[in-house]
């Protein structure tokens, strides 16, 4: 559903995401919105709560003023997903609020839409591919129409050839995400597509999705909060790493 026209009609929402190397915190409140995009990665667990408190202070808002808490559910970095989920879950328990889990790849799609000239009533399909390391991709397909997002293909873990086949089978107008630049010529963009390879403001895109979810009346019990990992195994053996290098035509390092 489209967002209400007046900021005063929007629900008060705190949104957090640490699924990537960037930390995103955003707040919708009277006088806002407020957005913060900062370095994340290994530091996210130590800096997330201080950044949240800073944003609340800027808004002149106390914890009790919050109505909804949203978090980037994943897929993404293993430790990062746990950080945002745990902080959001703890706050929701303490404040007796429901949680809004947000698809972390949809955040990338929404950021790309924000950078483009796509209007509310336009039909626009985008392929989101994020570098999942280990020569794999987190990929998903989304369709923007009538002011809303639809999921054409839910987030999943792909090899490069498998993802290439998905993109060729489903017509899209744009691609977005870190994988297109990370894999270079090994990952060909569908012909005629626009490319949004760098995010403008992950926090702003996250907040737009969170406010929309809150306005639709969505929400889940904090006890049900779980990250979306997609990968149980987070490291490769030496033999597996060598097999990946060989398949890519990369010589093994010198002893």
From TrEMBL:
Gene3D superfamilies: 3.30.420.40. One of its GO terms (molecular function) is transferase activity. Residues 45-146 form the Gcp-like domain. The keyword Metal-binding does not apply. One of its GO terms (biological process) is tRNA threonylcarbamoyladenosine modification. Keywords: Transferase. It comes from the Bacteria. Pfam families: TsaD. InterPro entries: ATPase_NBD, Gcp-like_dom, T6A_TsaB. This is tRNA (Adenosine(37)-N6)-threonylcarbamoyltransferase complex dimerization subunit type 1 TsaB.
């Amino acid at each position: 559903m489209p967002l209400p026209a007046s900021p005063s009609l929007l629900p008060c929402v705190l949104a957090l995401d640490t699924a990537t190397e960037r930390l995103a915190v955003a707040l919708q409140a009277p006088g806002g919105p407020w957005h913060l995009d900062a370095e994340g990665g290994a530091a996210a667990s130590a800096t997330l709560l201080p950044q949240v408190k800073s944003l609340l202070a800027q808004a002149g808002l106390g914890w009790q003023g919050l109505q909804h808490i949203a978090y980037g559910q994943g897929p993404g970095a293993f430790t990062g997903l746990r950080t945002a989920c745990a902080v959001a879950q703890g706050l929701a328990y303490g404040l007796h609020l429901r949680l809004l889990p947000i698809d972390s790849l949809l955040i990338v799609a929404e950021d790309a839409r924000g950078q483009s000239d796509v209007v509310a009533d336009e039909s626009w399909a985008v392929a989101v591919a994020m570098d999942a390391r280990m020569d794999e991709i987190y990929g998903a397909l989304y369709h923007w129409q009538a002011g809303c997002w639809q999921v054409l293909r839910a987030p999943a873990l792909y090899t490069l050839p498998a993802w290439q086949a998905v993109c060729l089978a489903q017509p899209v107008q744009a691609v977005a995400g870190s994988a297109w630049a990370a894999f270079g010529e090994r990952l060909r963009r569908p012909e005629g597509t626009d490319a949004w390879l760098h995010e403008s403001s992950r926090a702003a895109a996250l907040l737009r999705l969170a406010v929309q979810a809150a306005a639709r009346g969505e929400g889940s019990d904090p006890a049900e909060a779980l990250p979306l990992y997609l990968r149980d195994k987070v490291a490769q053996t030496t033999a597996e790493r060598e097999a990946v290098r060989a398949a890519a035509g990369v010589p093994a390092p010198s002893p």
